[in-house]
Amino acid sequence: MRYCINCCIHLLPNDLHRECFRCRGPDHNNQKCPVCRGENKVPLYPDSKQMKWLAVLEVRTDHCESWNGLFCLRKGKLCSLMFGLIIMTLVMVSYMLTGAKHGLLLIPSPFHYGAFASNPSLMDNESLSDMKDHYQPSKMNISYVKDYPSIKLIIDTITSKIEFITRQRPDLEELRKQEPHMFSVIPNKFLPNSKNPCWYEEYRGNTTTDPYATNSYALYSRRFRIIFDYLRKVFWNHLYHYKDKHYRLRCLPHFYIIGQPKCGTTDLYDRLRLHPDVRFSAIKEPHWWTRKRFGIIRLRDGFHDRYPVEDYLDLFDLAAHQIQSVLQSQAGTERGQRNNIIIGEASASTMWDNNAWIFFYDNSTEGEPPFLIQDFIHAFQPNAKLIIMLRDPVERLYSDYLYFASANKSAEDFHEKVAESLQLFEGCVLDSSLRACVYNNTLNNAMPVRLQVGLYVVYLLDWLTVFNKDQILVLRLEDHASNMRYTMHMVFQFLDLGPLSEKQEALITKSPASNTRRPEDRSLGPMLPATKAILRDFYRPFNTKLAQVLFDDAFLWKRT
Questions:
Q1: How far apart, in whole angstroms, are the C-alpha atoms of residue 103 and residue 151?
Q2: What is the DSSP letter of 255?
């Protein structure tokens, strides 16, 4: 390849050299031209070795006029071009990410699931980590149902499938077959001189035996170990000795605060425990009836060993010791006096969480659980009292989301999760009954937000199949927040508690509210107006039925 020193600093191939007018004019002579004769070629010697090709430095006064001029750019211009391309790429990526978050891009959503498979036999041998596998992709993409009109169609479909059908209450013998050990431990009669359900149980251990050595609450949680260390120290001091035998006082709760989560149950619990005649379990929420007795700590973590009923009863030993002291002090007094101390338990999952039934009870009817938590509680305590604290289900769901979501919380993210959950719920009610969907573990774990917890009337009607209405007190958080003194008086009257002094009442009613929204969650602001409108439509028929059952239009939540 030959090069011209008269054309430009860029090396030109030989086939272009003939078109160079500087070298080839009308008087050009190949013999006299030093370039054509092959002179003025300078060999390069990198590393003291002669190269196999030749190059020359060429000087040019004008610019390249061909497409190869692109390669004539200086280094600075090339760097500028590369920098500009990088900036454009970053801008495009930023736009795509922002557009996807706000629903501006028409791209498929990776979070969408389609129709729900209602056959419980599908889950007999599956692992808990595979629970979402029953939901197959649907034709309708979640990106297209975020707008209100499309989601309204989903809600209309759900509403058209709502039927409040009374469930059949199981027989006592059927319950005994399911939980024989529980029935062998808890008697069917309690001490007549105690307002709280208690009984004496023979203790067969000796002084060297640790009564709490196998308690699962102590084994799996460090924060309970301090409580059980204290109970070990005082255990023998509270045994009742009769005819060379040792007896311990066992107690169940007199009342249960059964729900709902994020509805003020913690605040009610903190105020009630200040009453001199009220005691609670060693921990606020044992979740024994709904989870621990099945060996569930978290469903996503699988199953552990089942917590026996003895472990649950151990949680009331502190209160039982105080009740026993009262009973012993009254032993020599007149008959007719009784212990007035009552015990409460405040697991907010008791009202609604029956998710574990599918793994233990296989004789279901059309995907509905054959046994519910209330069936067993009523079997042992037909006179138990139940307190339910509710709030506007729309606001409850947003509070629930802010409390339990771990990252990337925002009003927009909440909206997306609501849309996805509604679509999953619709897929279920198209194939199954309302009760089957509400109590279905697979669906409830697939939904990104817990829509089902706000379907208060579904759970309440099922509790009313076994308990009388006068055994259930239903409160609203909105009323509790605006007039706490009034709601606490309602609770005192419901539990038949004695009068309080002004100082005691002030301590209970004027204490700061418990478990309020965290500052970082408050900074996120309210939910989007569109989300609120969607949820209002979804919960409206359930609230209407709830107001009818309770004969109180306040449970319509029209003004919130």
A1: 14
A2: E
Residue 89's pLDDT is 82
Q: Is the dihedral of CA 497, 503, 506, 508 positive or negative?
A: negative
How far is 378 from 368, CA to CA, in rounded Å? 20
Q: 386 and 467 in contact (C-beta within 8 Å)? A: yes
What domains does the chain contain, in order, with CATH numbers? 172-550 (3.40.50.300)
CB-side exposure of 321: number of CA atoms within 13 Å? 16
pTM: 0.74
Mind listing the pLDDT tens digit for each residue in 46-89?
344 444 433 333 334 444 444 444 444 455 667 777 777 888 88
Tokens of 362: 């296989």
Please give the C-alpha separations between residue 311 and each of 266, 280, 288, 361, in angstroms, as whole numbers.
Answer: 23, 15, 9, 22
| Cβ contacts of 403 within 8 Å, gap of 6 or more | 262, 518, 521
The Cα–Cα gap between 417 and 421 comes to 6
- Please work out, in degrees rounded to the nearest 5, the angle formed at the alpha carbon of residue 259 by the alpha carbons of 272 and 390: 90
Contact indicator for 370, 170 with CB cutoff of 8 Å: yes
> Nearest CA to 319 among 345, 349, 285?
345
Structure tokens that stand for 521 in this block: 């969650």
Kindly report whether the peptide bond that precedes residue 168 is cis, defined as omega within 30 degrees of 0: no
Nearest-angstrom CA–CA distance, 422 and 431: 15
Phi, psi torsion values for 241, nearest 5 degrees: -105, 125
- Predicted confidence band of residue 497 (pLDDT cuts 50, 70, 90): very high
Whether 213 has a pLDDT exceeding 60, the answer reads yes
Write out the two tokens for 276.
């001199």
The CA-CA-CA angle for residues 264, 265, 266, to 5°, reads 90
CA-based nearest residue to 260, from 486, 524, 451, 536: 451
pLDDT value at position 525?
87
Structural tokens at position 251: 């107690």
* Structure-model confidence comparison of residues 91 and 479, the more confident one: 479
Is 286:348 a contact under the CB 8 Å cutoff? Answer: no
Give the span between the Cα atoms of 128 and 302, in whole angstroms: 6
Query: Quick one: residue 556, left, alpha or beta (phi over 0 = left, psi -120 to 50 = alpha)?
Result: alpha
SS (H, E, C) 360-390: CCCCCECCECCCCHHHHHHHHCCCCEEEEEE
Mean pLDDT for the chain? 80
Alpha-carbon span 334 to 537, nearest angstrom = 60
* 75, two tokens: 């280094």
Residue 339 confidence (pLDDT): 86
Going by their DSSP bridges, the two strands 385-390 and 255-259 should be labelled as parallel
Question: Alpha-carbon distance 288 to 509, whole Å?
Answer: 30
Q: Per the structure block, which two tokens stand in for 130?
A: 């595979």
Q: How many residues comprise the chain? A: 560
